[in-house]
Each structure stands twice: as structure tokens, then as C-alpha cells.
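In this section we walk through a basic example: taking a raw amino acid sequence and producing a predicted 3D structure, encoded as C-alpha cells. The instruction is simple. Fold the sequence below.
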Amino acid sequence: MHDPLNVSADGTRKAFAGAEDLQTPCVVVDEPRLDANIARMQSIVGSRVELHPHIKTHKSVAIARRQLAAGARGITASHAAEAAVFIRAGISPVTVAYPMITPGQVAGLLKLAADRDAELRFIVDSSFGLDVLEQAAVETGRAGGVFLKVDVGLHRCGVDPENSESLVLADRLARSKHRFMGLLSHAGHAYGAGNPDGVRKVAADERETLLRFREALRGRGIDVPRISIGSTPTMLCNDGFEGIDEARPGNYVFLDLTAVRLGIATRSEIALAVATTIISANRDVYIIDAGSKTLSSDLGPHSVGTGTAFGEAWSDELETPLIVTRLSEEHGMVARGATDLAIGDRLLIYPNHSCVVVNLAAGLHLVGGGEQRRLAIDAADNRIRAQGEGEDRD
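The resulting C-alpha cell sequence is shown next.
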């Protein structure tokens, strides 16, 4: 039985070494690649811009601590329960980059942050959301920092910087019980930009939009202390950071095939993969033991992925990857082409979207650094729900 998990797409070294003995399917993280990706992003921002990485990608306290040790100045979370996990772990500041519209959740986080001496930062993009933050501040006697979320082209959350009502909301926020932090954006539409030049154009538009909006606010006498941006593509293909104070990329720690297709990363930089085993075969496909419950059926972030398959399969015997063409819940179908692998052979799958794969996994297996270790996915959504939606339990 051939067992080829020591595989590297570029041939420079044997990546994911140490995964051979793991029971499949499992999610493996190449430690040297992980550390290199963390160091690379820290080098990109340098001392000019504070890094507040989005931990929704890995949901791991251990990996967040690696990012902080490398120079990150805080972390960003997707929602209240996720933020609570990292506050309890002693990490600060924590930015909840998600509109919060439930007073009880806000109050619970404010109390938890106060108990743990953590700095807590929110976003707002509506009068309703600001009402909720104000109500929680009155109920708890505590306040946090608040950014005004600005829509720079994704058209998901955020105020329209060209709409006069956005100026009114900013003015109200600046006079609220909370501390006005400044402007925050997420140029997630960069994932659909097609190539590095397209990504760089999105980055330029984002920066120019925020700087222009800041000047409009200053014209109304509103000070804008910080400008915060965030997306892995626009950091790797940035347009410079003049006027930018902080950045919140997330996917960069692992990367995935979406980044490769965009031309902003190579396969040799992907730090996360799914180890699988061929469990059956027919004349057209190999059937592996990883389906949609492991790889997800996501073609890329924000439903803008350009992929038409569900991952690439690699082994030592392959000079080019095989394509994962179909998924059922527990099975994946890999087009075999002219190859003749055996049942029982191992394959390593690079996924389309690493963030989703992590959230589906029971744990992460850190390999490649000379010692195999298992990392908990501390803030996996199913774990948070099982423990009570992240409310303070102390």
C-alpha cells in the first residue's frame, strides 16, 4: 500500500510530513508553512499598520497566540460567541466585526470584557444597531469602542459613504456613550476580482473611498481616529497603506485554492489540507473518504469563487493534481484520468475555502515541524452552540 502524504506541489521540500499515520479523513496544517504565512503578513504591514487578524479562519486560540507573538496587536471575531472564547483566553483587544442587534449579547460581552480586563470593539452600520449598543451601555454602565462600518463595494454590511444619512449616523456615533474608533471596511469583493491587478484595483478603491469619507466627516467636525481595512487578497496585493491604521485579514494563515486561482499565492504556500484515503474506484473516479461534511461544497468566499470543482488531490505519484469533481456527504469523487492508484492509497486535498473546512473539522493536526500535535478548534460554531452560545459561564 502506497502512503504518499509527504507531498509538495512545488517539489522544494516534503510538506505535511508526519501526516502518514493519521486516521483519515482529517484536516492537517503544515507548521512551517503556517509560520511562514504569519511572518509574511506581519512583514507586509511592518510597523506602519497594526495587524488585528480575523480568527474566523482558524478559530484556534493557539494559532491566535502565534499571530500575537509574531507582532499582531489584537484579533477580530465574527460574532459574539466567537469573541467570548478569545476574551476568556486572555486575548485583547477583540473586535467583533459583525453588526450586533441583540442588547443582551452586547451586555454579556461588555461584562465579560470588563471581568477579564479586555478591550472590546464593535461595529455599527445602522441607527438600530447604535440604539442596541447604547441600551447595553446604559444597562451595564460599561462601554466599548465602536467603528462605523463602511460599504466599499461588497454590498453586504456597511453604510453608503455617498449617502448623507451616513454622515448623520457618524455624528451620532461620535457623540454616543461608546468611544468612536473610526472607519472600518471589508473589501471581500476582491475575491471575485480575477487576478492580482484586479485585486490591487479593489484595494486602491477601498483606501480612496475611506480617505474621502474621512475628509467628509472631518468637514463636519468629526474626528476619525482610525481607519481599519481587512481582506487577505487586498493585503497581499495592496495599493499601499497611506492613511491606514490597521488591517484585519484572516485567510492568509492557511490560504487555499481560491488564493491560488486569484494569483496571490502558490500551492507551496497553502498550509491547510485534508488527508484522505481512496476507499473505492471505478473506471472514471477514485472514491475518497472525505465528502461535503469535510471539504464543504463551497467554491470560494462570498459565493464569488471561480472554481468548478471541490478541491485538488495530490500524492507523490502525481506531477499534476487530480480534480475532486463531485461530493456526497461522506464521499468525494476524484477524476482519475490516466492514473492507476490503488484502493488504500492516500491523497492530500487542497480545498477551495480553508475557513469553512476548519469550522467543519473536529480538530487540526499540526504536522511538518518534526512533531505531530493536535490543535483544538476552540471557537467552532457547533462547539459554541453546544456550550450555550458563548454566554459568560464563570
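Looking at the output, two observations stand out. Residues 1-5, 389-394 have pLDDT under 50 and may be disordered. The longest strand covers residues 272-281. In the next section we compare this with other chains.
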